[in-house]
Amino acid sequence: MRYLLQSLRILPCATHRNHFVESHLSRVRMHLNAGDHASAEAVMAGVPAETHEHLVWRLSVERRVGRWIKTWTQALPQSSHPLLVSAYADVNKAWAVRGESYAADIPMLRRRRYPGIMMQAYRKLSDIVAQEPGNAMALAGLIHCDVVVGAGDGDGNRDDWLNAAMAAEPFHCPSIVQYARGTWQRWGGEPDDHFRFADWVVEHAPAGSCSHIVAAQAVLDDALAVADGFSTMRGISRHLGNEETAAWLRRAILKWAGATPETLVCRLQDIASLHGESYHGVCMETFAFAAYFAGAKDEARQLLIALRGRLQADVWEMLLPSIPGWLAAVGLRHRAAHLAHDRICRDLGLDPRQICR
To answer: Rounded to whole angstroms, how far apart are CA atoms 313 and 188?
Structure first.
């Protein structure tokens, strides 16, 4: 019956799995609830930068975050972690007030409120950097605040913060990604700034670095920019895809995977089996989606086959309208993303029923 419903395209083939950060989050949450703040910090210190970033973002929206920050600060007054989580909690509050709309579409009252909340985060992050100039996560947060509300009064500070983060942790992925956001036209960047910055990252970042994801994000930002002019993702792909863009993104995919065209399939299988439960899994999904729009069809197929329809990133939903609340309430939160994945597979000549087994 399931195969029949999938054949009729009533039931999607793709499925969602737990986000890679969930296992780390549960451990940190357990330690904080037990008052074992040192162990919580040990978990956070022992993960890669991109996992650390997701941990901080997720902790900052937890229902008990206020209580945790208070007891954490009392137990470890010299630690910057509780202030960092508190700052990111303010960033999330600011986004909750602002919403995801373009600035011109935000109602006036909310447009006046959210910058003040973001500035609270900026001041906390500045305090951390004043004490720890090499705190890369705080520097990434400052870049984020500057991109969203101009908290740093210009690109000069943004460049300084990125340089400081790079000096502390070369090609610190969260800082690279936040800086790249500021090169997108919808966030004030000049035309082609996003491609120039991504090109620099691909040229200089080491093979295997998750920082290469900014190349995929540059392509997806272009897809989002033209989305209103097309009724289907296939139309966007035909508009954006060409040999030059495909070759450019292919280079980034190979650098991220540490592969050559001949070894890419094997490397993707290795990444999926050994590193799928990490940020590399998110990179794989983002590159697959971007390769479809860039015209890198072979790479898109190889990435989708390696993913096997097991999704965790929200990238598939970026070009889709918001789902009704009742769908999320009955457990169909990701249905549209699954259908988008299946549609792309079919556009590329793949049978999602086969690759999602």
So the answer is: 25
